[in-house]
Amino acid sequence: EDLKTQIRRFYKGVMLDQVRKNRGHNVVADLGKYHMIFQGNPGTGKTSMARLMARLLYRVGVLPKDDLVEVQQDQLVAGYVGQTAAKTQKVIGEAAAGVLFIDEAYRLSQGKNDFGREAIEQLMAAMNEPPGKAPVMIFAGYPTDMQNFMAQNDGLYRRVPYSFDFPNYTCAEIAEILDLMVVQKGFALERKLLANGRQRLARTIETETSPQMRAMMNGGLCERIFAFAKQSLDARDDPEHPS
To answer: Which end of the chain is less packed: N or C, by CB atoms within 10 Å?
Structure first.
């Protein structure tokens, strides 16, 4: 099932629950539990989708704000015994009105000490609170690492009702992202690259990059391509009359 279908189904469910609640129906059992797993390789749009999710949940009335707080392990875990709970709780408090996006969340279980476990327990305690008192939490990372992380933390997994899979981008999708990026930066690609739905651009990306590179970088590959293309343009351009 593709990501757009997953998101549409989630949105429909949230909307229906809000309507049911507004009409006086007793749907409090699971209402308010919107914690999620975003699993996918780097550059597949997980952070961008988290921002959209924060705005969506705010727009439908689930969250009081559309704030997104992004953290990784080092912003939750302290270096000494007894400090991690307070550090994690401080982040939870800062994100309480919106969404807390925990990137590379699986790293919380990969340390040699129990500090990561302490952070997980603090997060789990907050996950029982309704939105507004505690943030909606999104745990993100590589698919295999996230599956192992949740398998090792069944208490956490039980509190996360939604999981979204972010597939690698196709060459056509990378071409589309690159085209948009180039325009946003004030440049333009050659028209022949954009003809017939950017087919030539997509073929060039496919032949000039490896499957491993595309899987490792996805949308991030566009920044690299743009940088190289601009360097080439600068090398051949006339300083008196730049393109």
So the answer is: N
Q: Which two tokens stand for residue 185?
A: 């930066």
Buried b (16+ CB within 10 A) or exposed e, 177-199: bbbeebeeeeeebeeebeeeebe
| 162 vs 156: CA distance, rounded Å | 12
Beta strands 162-166 and 136-141 are unpaired
Mind listing the pLDDT tens digit for each residue in 135-172?
A: 999 999 999 999 999 999 999 999 999 999 999 999 99
> What pairing do the DSSP bridges indicate for beta strands 99-102 and 136-141?
parallel
SS3 239: coil
Please give the model's pTM, rounded to 2 decimal places. 0.88
Q: What angle do CA 146, 39, 199 make, to 5 degrees?
A: 145
